[in-house]
Write a structure and sequence with these properties.
By secondary structure, this protein is α+β, with helices and mostly antiparallel strands. It has one domain: Ribosome hibernation promotion factor-like (Double Stranded RNA Binding Domain). It has helices at about 15-30, 70-90, 100-104, and strands at about 1-10, 35-45, 45-55, 60-65. It has a four-stranded mixed sheet, with helices on one face. Helix 1 (about 15-30) packs parallel to helix 2 (about 70-90).
């Protein structure tokens, strides 16, 4: 997994980078076929926004989250991406048991 982390009106400190890496490790445990992750952290007035685009085989998954704290927005983003990745994994998995395939 290649992570591209950038900040818009915010400096990406090593602490923020480490926190984002820790949260995205959970997503990569659920779905091993992550190719590329592009994450942007933004501060606009009093709101902190985290958005990410995951490149998986054959698809792109996008999610964003806005909170009053940057760490809370990263947490919310990770939760949203985790749900989206699980949904994508369900869609792409084969739901037919082996007996049904053999009977055909």
């Amino acid at each position: 997994m290649q992570l591209d982390l950038s900040g818009h009106h915010v400096e990406v400190t090593p602490a923020l980078r480490g926190y984002v890496l820790k949260k995205f490790e959970r997503i990569s445990r659920h779905f091993e076929q992550l190719i590329d992750v592009h994450c942007v952290l933004t501060v606009e007035k009093m709101s902190h926004k985290a958005e990410a685009t995951l490149m998986v085989r054959g698809n792109k998954i996008y999610a964003d989250a806005t909170e009053e704290n940057m760490y809370a927005s990263i947490d919310a983003l990770a939760d949203k991406l985790d749900r989206c990745v699980k949904k994508h994994k369900e869609k792409t998995s084969d739901h037919h048991p082996e007996e049904v395939l053999r009977a055909r």
